[in-house]
Write a structure and sequence with these properties.
This protein is α+β, with helices and mostly antiparallel strands. It has five domains: 104 residues, no CATH class; 121 residues; 141 residues; 165 residues, Immunoglobulin-like (Sandwich), CATH 2.60.40.1230; 113 residues, 2-Layer Sandwich (TATA-Binding Protein), CATH 3.30.310. Helices cover 48% and strands 13% of the residues. The protein is built from 35 helices and 16 strands. The strands form four sheets. Strands 11, 12, 13, 14, 15 and 16 form a six-stranded antiparallel sheet that branches. Strands 4-5-6-8-7 form a five-stranded antiparallel sheet, with helices on one face. Strands 3-9-10 form a three-stranded antiparallel sheet. Strand 14 and strand 15 form a beta hairpin. Helix 12 runs parallel beside helix 14. The N terminus is likely disordered.
């Protein structure tokens, strides 16, 4: 509905008055009358005006969609919605696809026309239009659409020139079609190429690809078995990274938790890796996860523990999965509870431990031990479904009833016994206490006295359960009748202020007094076995997740910006930063010390991509430092202080790029006009229209499509003007568009690399720099930075295995500039030697300077 409201803001203030009035109707009849009037008006517009322009069609189709969302049937307007698909305007095409996704039946005669429009958009290579088409296919998900596009989408997914946002949508769309019509998704050469998406630099693409591969490999495991080593490699980079390394995908100080969980689940589809190096790396990952679980929490918020524990329990599940493959000795249980962190985990992880215990139980005795131990460790977080399930299993299994009675009797002897343990003990001893009554240490009176010693410390519900246990004892152990009757007739029970306890005491006392032994045995006979059904704790987990819910990490709550943020919720803000709603791109980080003084409030003017700082203030403090952070990454916070945040998310492919500049302000009541600007001569910049005003405390996202016409060395500038206290003040920032963003990574063999290296041997073609390392010389970090820089990493090319060799081509409209690089680390001296060779001197020097500042 957010998109619907954005697209119809003008209409709702103008011709959409009728719908606003419909919302405020005091009766259903009045609303229907108002809606019918508006439907008649829209129908007449569609029939009477054959030359209706695109804007009007969008407006009326949007109204029909809104009326449908109010609960009214819509039986016309479908053709007008289909016509909007041929529009070249995003908002018109968006409303057309939205209407079709919601209102068009998969058996409609319009499907052929819709499919033709989708084919045109997929062939357009416009990433925005392609994403809209893919979303529509996934939303409808019919067999007809699977037949039409199941063979086309894999080609889009693995094509080298597909933008990252399109790859992500294509992977999820293919997953949807495979789930609905698996027989229509052809396996072929693309299956081996999709595995390599696990190496993609864009984390959103990797996350979507893991979901797709996990589904596909369950039916065709051999086709995707190479994913194991790649999944281990990606998991290793995540768990060994600091939260700042994956800032854009860090959730409450936990790096990429959703992706980590998905990778661990993918690995559970295969046996342990045979390759010793891969296996060793995976063991290191699991050890790191377990060690981090023991560390003090970095945040007291439940989201932090949820994310951390979700990864922990998937790691435990993987360990148990491998335990099955290696066939442990008979009777040796997986060391499940030994891996739990000492602090009591929160409710959702406890539920998962209970499920894992049931799923991987070696035998039922071990299961009883595990759950009772879980209640002892984390009793406050054990829901009723968990101990209900223990009771259900014990009642249904004759071979475990005596063991359960003995174990729970021993557990109840602890001085501090959790109330959930008392519940389990009362139920099991009431049913099966006779199985251990032969031992003098657990005689009937000993059992009763043990339970009754907990009675006055329990809640009303637990006391009511114990009263039922006592009447069961009278049936099982007649020798306890007198003692229990004294308890039942005491004033504290028979005159209890709680109606439930009073009624039970009176009825049980009367029943034990007048009923014969046979009648008592019939009324209080042992509980019959439960019918086989879904585990109550599994049902509880599903209920917690809700229909259609995603990861268990979010405990049912979604960030309102999650769709925009790619599913990444920003880290907790402080009092000196904008409100959470102002984190437009989900890029919040701790404010840089060099962010400068707070900008002044008042009107905000954005002059995007001004040619020079002429007429503007000097660069804001910290600009250069923030700018350099983006050389090897595409997303992050460009500027932030107490009142203003500017975030950037960008994507580049060949000589094209897309920048999403999010401007959020958290002060004042005044409005902020946004103006478009021009880019430098080497860049062709086109901007999409945005709302002309930004209210105080609101946010706006400016999308810029960039075409690189020629190589360049100066970054474009972003100028922001504030009016504060009657004075106009400026902030000027460098936008993170550098020439290496237009790299196309190029794979080369050793012979080809050195042949080309010799060809670029002129002095003006080479740039070299020797510099001291300013960060730890970590191999994985170095590789990640070189890949982030844009070049391909060529393995086994350099005779020295410690050196790094890369190759790529700078793609511009005017020319292509080949680039070869060689990075030689000297760990002993903590120094690097960086050499770059290109066909243009200016490019070599500029790239050398940019890359050297990353180490």
């Amino acid at each position: 509905c957010h998109g619907l409201e954005q697209g119809t803001g003008v209409e709702r203030r103008g011709e959409g008055v009728e719908l606003e009035e419909a919302e405020g109707c005091k009766s259903k009849e009045a609303e229907i009358k108002r809606i019918n009037k508006e439907l008649a008006n829209i129908r007449s517009k569609f029939k009477g005006d054959k030359a209706l322009d695109g804007y009007s069609k969008k407006k009326y189709v949007c109204k029909l969609l809104f009326i449908f969302l109010l609960g009214h049937d819509i039986d016309f307007g479908h053709m007008e919605a289909v016509n909007l698909l041929s529009s070249n305007k995003y908002t018109e095409k968006q409303i057309g696809y939205l209407f079709i996704s919601v209102l068009v039946n998969s058996n409609s005669e319009l499907i052929r026309l819709i499919n033709n429009a989708i084919k045109n958009d997929l062939a357009s290579r416009n990433p925005t239009f392609m994403c809209l088409a893919l979303h529509c296919i996934a939303n409808v998900g019919s067999r007809e659409m699977a037949e039409a596009f199941a063979s086309e989408i894999p080609r889009i997914l693995v094509a080298g020139d597909t933008m990252d946002s399109v790859k992500q949508s294509a992977a999820l769309c293919l997953l949807r079609l495979y789930k609905t019509s698996p027989d229509l998704v052809p396996m072929g050469e693309w299956t081996s190429r999709v595995v390599h998406l696990l190496n993609d630099q864009h984390m959103g693409v990797v996350t979507a690809a893991v979901s797709l591969i996990t589904c596909l490999c369950k039916k065709n495991p051999d086709d995707f078995k190479t994913c194991v080593s790649l999944a281990v490699s990606r998991l290793s980079r995540i768990v060994s990274s600091a939260s700042t390394d994956l800032q854009d995908y860090t959730y409450y100080f936990v790096p990429a938790p959703w992706l980590s969980v998905k990778l661990l689940r993918l690995l559970q589809c295969y046996p342990p890796p045979e390759d010793a190096a891969v296996k060793g790396r995976l063991v290191e990952c699991l050890e790191t996860i377990l060690n981090k679980a023991q560390e003090p929490p970095k945040s007291k918020k439940v989201q932090h523990s949820n994310a951390k524990n979700a990864i922990l329990f998937e790691a435990i599940s993987l360990i148990i999965h491998y335990d099955r493959w290696v066939t442990p000795p008979s009777g040796a249980p997986p060391a499940l509870l030994l891996l739990l962190p000492p602090p009591p985990p929160s409710a959702p992880p406890v539920l998962k431990v209970a499920i894992l215990a049931e799923k991987y139980a070696v035998d039922y005795s071990w299961y009883v031990d595990t759950i009772l131990n879980l209640i002892r460790i984390a009793g406050d977080y054990v829901s009723e479904e968990v101990w209900y399930r223990v009771i259900q299993i014990v009642i249904n299994r004759d071979d475990v009833q005596g063991y359960a009675a003995k174990t729970v009797f021993e557990a109840l002897q602890a001085p501090a016994c959790h109330e959930n343990m008392v519940k389990v003990g009362g139920y099991i001893l009431g049913e099966f206490g006779n199985l251990i009554a032969g031992d003098p240490r657990s005689s009937p009176l000993v059992q009763f006295n043990l339970l009754h010693s907990k009675f006055h410390l329990c809640s009303v519900a637990t006391r009511a359960l114990l009263l039922s246990t006592y009447i069961k004892f009278i049936n099982l152990f007649p020798e306890t009748k007198g003692t229990i009757q004294e308890v039942l007739r005491s004033d504290s029970q028979i005159r209890n202020a709680d109606v439930e306890l009073q009624q039970r005491a009176v009825e049980y006392l009367k029943l034990s007094s007048i009923a014969s032994t046979d009648v008592l045995a019939t009324v209080l006979e042992e509980m019959p076995p439960f019918p086989e059904r879904e585990s109550s704790i599994l049902a509880k987990l599903k209920k917690k997740k809700g229909p259609g819910a995603g990861s268990e990490l979010d405990d049912g709550k979604k960030d309102p910006n999650a769709e925009m943020n790619g599913g990444v919720e920003p880290t907790a803000s402080t009092a000196s930063t904008p409100s959470p709603s102002a984190d437009l791109l989900g890029l919040r980080a701790a404010p840089s010390a060099s962010s400068g003084a707070p900008p002044s409030s008042g009107n905000l003017l954005v002059d995007v991509f001004s040619d020079s700082p002429s007429g503007t203030a000097g660069l804001a403090p910290g600009t250069e430092e923030n700018f350099l952070r983006f050389v090897c990454k595409n997303n992050g916070v460009l500027f932030e202080n107490q009142l203003l945040q500017i975030g950037v998310k960008s994507e580049f492919r060949q000589n094209l790029g897309e920048l999403r500049v999010g401007i959020a302000r958290g002060w004042g009541e005044s409005s902020c006009p946004i103006h478009r600007g021009d880019g430098p001569g080497e860049l062709n910049v086109q901007t999409k229209a945005v709302e002309p005003l930004v209210e105080g405390g609101a946010q706006v996202q400016q999308v810029l499509n960039i075409e690189c016409l020629n190589d360049f060395t100066e970054a474009p500038l972003l100028n922001i003007k504030f009016r504060y206290g009657g004075t106009l003040q400026n902030i000027t920032l460098k936008l993170p568009v550098t020439v290496n963003k237009f790299f196309q990574a190029t794979e080369m063999q050793s012979q080809d690399f050195f042949q080309r290296w010799k060809q670029l041997s002129l002095p003006q073609q080479e740039a070299q720099k020797i510099f001291k390392a300013s960060h730890p010389m970590d191999s994985e970090v170095t590789k990640a930075k070189l890949l982030g820089f844009g070049s391909a990493l060529l393995e086994k090319v350099d005779p020295n295995p410690d050196n790094y060799v890369g190759a790529g081509i700078i793609q511009t409209k005017a020319l292509q500039v080949g680039c070869l690089l060689r990075l030689e680390p000297n760990a002993q001296a903590q120094m690097y030697r960086l050499t770059l060779r290109t066909s243009k001197e200016s490019v070599s020097k500029h790239l050398c300077e940019l890359l050297s500042q990353q180490f």
